């Protein structure tokens, strides 16, 4: 019985790059899923550590976004991402002849953060009191949700929410987002391999997942909406739900760990009152966390 044993696995692979789609991230990377990335822990170990290193060579130009999608296995209690770059620094403020700041240095550098759920697409304009939804309805990541880095990147991928389970019980995805702001001096590039480390505190649960072939999250988390006949419509972001025409039932599948925002639009002569059932509440739109 090797109680308290902690082991480390180190691999070096290239990321799988996904060409950008219309309205999507400029650069998207998904973790290759195989036994090399997630080796089986020794039987009897009470803890296990997996450290992976990935080479990312594609620079991020000014105004572009980058997102890493990382599979978090069951049994994990912590996940972190680390990297080095010569491009962290913010450029100086841009001022006019009178010394007034036109563009602050906080808007002249890369900003980033990790998330243990899908926050939706990126919106480059922060919400304001005058325009609370600069990119329309739905859920978005805004520049105000991200932070700068002064030396070396070390961000948490899991857990990032107060209600996230202490230990992951079903495989899910976490995300790292980077935005090279338009006023930065130059493109952004990593100068070291990107490292991702997993702390596994439930080794038995992790090994069960390995023995089942390391299945990825499936779109089996079904959300069903019933809208009253002719009273209005209900739509979702990410898309999938669009119902209410004639009172039809509608449903869509969403990956476990994602967030889904529902928006109710009242028909002429009607007004939104509240959500019922598992969507209970008076806020419109309403955001659900798919567990």
Describe this structure in words.
The protein has one helix spanning 203-211, and strands at residues 8-14, 16-18, 27-30, 48-55, 65-72, 76-83, 94-95, 101-103, 110-115, 121-122, 140-141, 153-158, 172-180, 194-200, 221-226, 232-237, 242-243, 249-254, 259-266, 286-289. The chain has two domains: 8-211, no CATH class; 221-289, no CATH class. With 291 residues, the protein is mainly beta. The model is unreliable at 1-23 (pLDDT under 50). It contains one helix and 20 strands. The two termini are 34 Å apart. The strands form six sheets. It has a five-stranded mixed beta sheet, with no helix packed on it. A hairpin with a 4-residue loop joins strand 16 and strand 17. It is 3% helix and 37% strand. The protein is flat.
């Amino acid at each position: 019985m090797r109680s308290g044993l902690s082991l480390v696995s180190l691999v070096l692979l290239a990321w799988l790059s996904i060409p950008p789609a219309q309205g999507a991230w400029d650069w998207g990377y998904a973790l290759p899923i195989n036994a090399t990335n997630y080796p089986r822990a020794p039987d009897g170990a009470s803890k296990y550590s997996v450290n992976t290193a990935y080479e990312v060579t594609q620079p991020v130009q000014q105004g572009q976004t980058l997102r890493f999608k990382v599979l978090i296995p069951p049994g994990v209690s912590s996940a972190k991402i680390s990297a080095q770059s010569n491009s962290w620094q913010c450029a100086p403020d841009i001022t006019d002849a009178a010394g007034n700041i036109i563009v602050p240095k906080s808007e002249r550098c890369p900003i980033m953060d990790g998330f243990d759920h899908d926050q939706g697409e990126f919106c480059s304009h922060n919400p304001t009191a005058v325009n609370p939804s600069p990119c329309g309805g739905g859920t978005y990541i805004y520049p105000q949700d991200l932070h700068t880095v002064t030396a070396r990147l070390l961000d948490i991928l899991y857990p990032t929410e107060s209600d996230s389970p202490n230990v992951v019980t079903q495989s899910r995805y976490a995300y790292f987002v980077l935005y090279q702001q338009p006023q930065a001096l130059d493109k952004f590039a990593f100068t070291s391999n990107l490292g991702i480390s997993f702390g596994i505190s439930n080794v038995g649960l992790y090994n069960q997942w390995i023995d089942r072939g390391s299945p990825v999250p499936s779109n089996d988390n079904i959300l069903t909406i019933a809208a009253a006949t002719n009273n209005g419509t209900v739509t979702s972001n990410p898309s999938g739900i669009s119902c209410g025409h004639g009172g039809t039932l509608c449903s869509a599948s969403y990956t476990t760990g994602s967030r889904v925002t529902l928006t109710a639009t009242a028909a002429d002569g009607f007004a939104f009152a509240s959500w019922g059932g598992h969507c209970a509440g008076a806020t419109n739109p309403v955001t659900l966390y798919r567990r």
